[in-house]
Design brief:
heterodimer; A: 269 residues; 2 domains; 6-stranded mixed beta sheet; 39% helix; globular; B: 276 residues; mainly alpha; MetI-like fold; 10 helices
């Protein structure tokens, strides 16, 4: 636990427009190597914005972002990020194998090395046999698995996932949660994961960061002490429910009194 | 680990015989309409004794074509070359300008309203002018008309294809530290291909129209448009119709050639998925 953090945020603030809405304020957060940290909060709380700031897709208004001991920009140039969005964002003109190979092509890997890695990744996300298929021939869950394989293919230091399972049905989502955990352990990756499902956050994470609404501040951080590896039984563990309750209460506190029911509804899905 | 991949298996690819059979079924209605249409033409024109200047029987037109096939074919090719040249110039200019406008958006914002306004101009009205510019007998004057007609639809469609990329698709490329050039090569241009081919198919037809109507305003004796105009002027209606038929066949062949290239380069595209 004494290794240098993969992500270190200090006093990050984000304003939209000139003197306009403050989306994020006073964000201090460290993510250690091998962690799976979830960001949770009501819609519009800036959790996706925070993820995009870490990934250097949008700059913070002030504050410091250090990734692997360098600036977020340098980390992006060094290709330290694997990104997965809510939409799989696969390129229709590329087959499954070629979608996974895209970052490898850009890194200048030769054909043979690419093919080997693609085979390995396809096995990891259990899509063997679908290499030659095009994205539109796959179900939503399979598309998202391709996106995860693509993000992991070049061994990025940090995987940034923005509600990757948000558009999927509950059953597919739970199955992919299990798969993500297996992949996370196998690949020994570090993951920053945005979600608005409390149970998903608790089930997956080593820590859950609860963000309050407008301006987005860290309302609290819940360390998830459920045993690893997580299994189907984890969801039935009494400790799981305690942690879910803890996160839910932090969300309520972050929202303020009087709008409790609205928070529950918003956060439930 | 346990349940994931067994739920869906790779789609079986149809056997060749099944594909051919399905194709035949798909095309049967169109083939029947074709045969019935031709029979009706021949039958009605002969049965009702329609005047020759209104519509000659198809068999007479085909016979006339056969007797003077060398003239028709060489006139057809002459005008087709005008159309092809105009198409090549207009379409490549359209694609290039679209790329420039997509790369530098402010330029697009400044110029696009005029491009759209210019698109509404009946360009064929300029045919007599281009005759003055490039010489009435020169194919260049017809190519100019065909090129200008092709330019706008290709420009506007290509631009739409280049710019209608999912924002996340661009962000993903940026997360790989891709520069503008690489984003163009790997995302914008492939994304624009279906739009470009749609425009190119429209442009084939427009190029033929441009070349033939360009001929109507005066041109070389060898041109198809001149042949149509002259034949109709001297009541040689079978000749005029035979020349029109040649124009139709060339136009359809041109369109089909581009459609074939589309199919070969874009097997992935939604429109090629078939009916499953």
């Amino acid at each position: 636990m004494t290794r240098a953090p993969v992500v270190a945020l200090t006093g990050v603030r984000k304003e939209f427009g000139r003197g306009g809405v403050v989306a994020l304020e006073g964000i201090d957060l460290e993510v250690a190597a091998g962690e799976l940290v979830s960001l949770i909060g009501p819609s519009g709380c800036g959790k996706s914005t925070l993820l995009r700031i870490v990934g250097d897709l949008t700059p913070p208004t002030s504050g410091e972002v250090v990734v692997n001991g360098k600036s977020a920009r340098q980390a992006r140039v060094d290709r330290d990020y694997g990104m997965v969005f809510q939409d799989a964002v696969l390129y229709d003109w590329r087959t499954v194998a070629k979608n996974i190979a895209l970052p490898l092509e850009m890194l200048g890997w030769d054909r043979k090395r690419r093919a080997e890695r693609v085979e390995e990744m396809v096995g990891l996300v259990e899509l063997t046999g679908f290499e030659g298929h095009h994205p539109w021939e796959l179900s939503g869950g399979m598309q998202q698995r391709v996106a995860i394989a693509r993000a992991l293919s070049f061994d990025p230091a940090l995987l940034l996932m923005d509600e990757p399972f948000g558009a999927l049905d509950e059953m597919t989502r739970e199955r992919l949660n299990m798969e993500l955990l297996r992949i996370w352990q196998q690949a020994e990756s570090t993951i920053l994961f945005v979600t608005h499902s409390i149970s998903e956050a608790v089930f997956l994470s080593t820590r859950v960061v609860v963000i309050s609404r407008r301006p987005g501040r860290i309302a609290g951080i819940v360390a998830v002490d459920l045993p690893q590896p997580r299994t189907v039984e984890t969801r039935e563990d009494p400790r799981f429910f305690e942690l879910v309750t803890e996160v839910r209460e932090l969300l309520r506190a972050g929202r303020g009194v009087g709008a409790v029911d609205a928070v529950d509804e918003e956060v439930a899905q | 680990m346990s349940t994931a991949p067994t739920a869906v298996q790779p789609l079986p690819r149809g056997s060749l015989a099944r594909t051919v059979g399905r194709r035949a079924r798909d095309w049967a209605p169109a083939a029947i309409v074709f045969v019935v249409g031709i029979a009706a033409w021949e039958g009605l024109v002969r049965g009702l004794d329609v005047e020759r200047f209104l519509l000659p029987p198809l068999s007479d037109i085909l016979q006339t074509f056969w007797e003077q096939r060398d003239t028709f074919v060489s006139a057809g090719l002459f005008t087709f070359k005008e159309a092809l040249g105009g198409f090549a110039i207009g379409a490549s200019a359209g694609i290039l300008v679209a790329i420039v406008l997509a790369r530098w958006r402010w330029l697009g914002a400044a110029l696009l309203p005029y491009a759209i306004a210019a698109n509404a101009i009946p360009i064929i009205a300029f045919a007599p002018i281009t005759n003055n510019w490039f010489g009435i007998l020169s194919p260049a004057s017809k190519m100019a008309i065909a090129a200008v007609i092709c330019f706008f639809p290709v420009l506007i469609n290509t631009l739409r294809g280049l710019t209608s990329v999912q924002p996340a698709a661009i962000e993903l490329m940026r997360s790989y530290a891709a520069g503008e050039l690489e984003i163009f090569r790997r995302v914008r241009i492939p994304n624009a291909l279906p739009y470009i081919f749609t425009a190119l198919k429209v442009a084939t037809v427009l190029a033929m129209i441009g070349a033939i109507v360009g001929d109507y305003f005066g041109g070389s004796d060898q041109a198809l448009g001149i042949l149509i105009r002259r034949s109709a002027g001297i009541f040689a209606f079978e000749e005029a119709w035979a020349a029109i038929l040649v124009a139709c066949v060339l136009g359809i062949a041109f369109y089909a050639a581009v459609a074939l290239v589309e199919r070969l380069t874009m097997g992935w595209h939604v429109s090629s998925r078939g009916s499953e």
